[in-house]
Amino acid sequence: MDGHRHRPVRTRECFRPRPGECGGSPARGGHGHRKPLEAARLGAVPHHPDSTVQHLSRPREGVPTVADTASAVRRVTEALGDGRGPIAVDTERASGFRFDDRAYLVQVRREGAGTHLVDPASVSDAGTLMAPVMNESPWILHAGHSDLPALTSLGWRTPQLHDTQVAGRLLGYGQVGLAGMLGDFLGVTVAKDKGREDWSARPIPTAMLSYAALDVELLIELLDSAMDQLTSLGREAWYHQECQRIRVDWSHPVQPQDWRQLRGIGSLRNRRGLEVARRLTEERTRIARERDIPPEQVLRTSSILDVAKSPSKASRQLQRPQSGGRRVDRAARTLLLQAVQDALSADAAELPTVQRSVAGRPDHRHWAKEYPLAHALLQGFRKAVGHLSEDTGIRVEDLIVVRHLRSVAWDVSEASAPTVPGFTGEDPVGDLEDLLGSLLEDCGCRPWQVGLLVPVLLPVVVDCLD
């Protein structure tokens, strides 16, 4: 199921869509169709009614003492080195109070070593001291994409990642928070009400330390239970592919947001406005880093966009209260106004370009009228993936993100023109299958996704090209 290159001989009749649809899922029971997973198998994960779920308010072995000296961190490292199996890891950060998303507390737990809390803010070389163990051991995280940048900033990189949230998604859970999964799998739960506290403040209250320790208290048991279910459903390989992708994509140091990633930046449709947004964002970042406060406390992103759309009104706009009632202080306002002036006087040849399409693809909102084949493919693809989601119990967005589905629909519509060679040979449907597989791979789909998606997208293409 992981590959798409080894194709059986097939005819178009094998991939007829459901009646009345352009595409859709393959006909039930047809040759080449992957049978839908039985709902009973998806329900094999033990579910504990709320009345039977035990609430843990304190770690079983007590609240660990924080390792906030170099000698204490060395003892933690030795204990982890004497342990066995993967290391459960979590971080507490303070991006709502500080400039970036660095770790202010790291929680680790390993079989034979127990739970430990490490304060990297108090021990500047904590990352270096623990690296020999951390960099040679598998990790267990929950929602690893949120922790990996902070852990990478400490100089750590695991050779193998386990992510219990990924397991929950592939098992068909809609709610995959740690507390919910612990309740469903193990019949216990923990509070999740202190994640937004100021973890940079010292000393850390005992209640917060208990909360932090509980985040790794049961990760090892949760992984064991989830892996049993993944194996029983034949999804273990899917899980490892997803974890590997997260490990590769998110193992980078904490870094400031790039101006092109600002929420709403696509609403700016002229180059001068983009330059204003770029310079304001860079100045905001500089001020925030210097003050060690969140960039949004210097200037809201919404205010950056407002100024970029009407830079001539910058002085007035920067004096107004921002959303939430906060005003830009005088010192910051002076620097930000200078950034606007610099943007307005910048050479036109150096201005950023407006991204009017994605990889040369027209806006999908115009496809129905101007590109009917691409529109028909996209609509059929959406239905087919929706049916696949129902069959597998996996959310649509975990099967394929919508921008990738649009990309594949557009590229297929462009490549499938009658003048393009390769679709009129002995096996035109097979050629289309290879095309779909290649396009999905190019979008970053993992082998398990390609193996599921090609059989359900192919009938859409065949039907729309008839």
UniProtKB/TrEMBL annotation:
Name recorded for this polypeptide: HRDC domain-containing protein
GO process terms (BP): nucleobase-containing compound metabolic process
Stretch forming the signal peptide: none
Residues in HRDC domain copies: 270-350
Any one Gene Ontology molecular-function term assigned to this protein's record: nucleotide binding
InterPro entries xrefs: 3'-5'_exonuclease_dom (IPR002562), Exo_C (IPR041605), HRDC-like_sf (IPR010997), HRDC_dom (IPR002121), HRDC_dom_sf (IPR044876), RNase_D-like (IPR051086), RNaseH-like_sf (IPR012337), RNaseH_sf (IPR036397)
Chain residue ranges for the region called Disordered: 1-34
Domain of life: Bacteria
Biased composition annotated in UniProt, kind: Basic and acidic residues: 10-19
Listed transmembrane segments: none
Classification lineage: Bacteria, Bacillati, Actinomycetota, Actinomycetes, Mycobacteriales
Pfam families listed in its UniProt record: DNA_pol_A_exo1, DNA_pol_A_exoN, HRDC
Organism: Candidatus Corynebacterium avicola
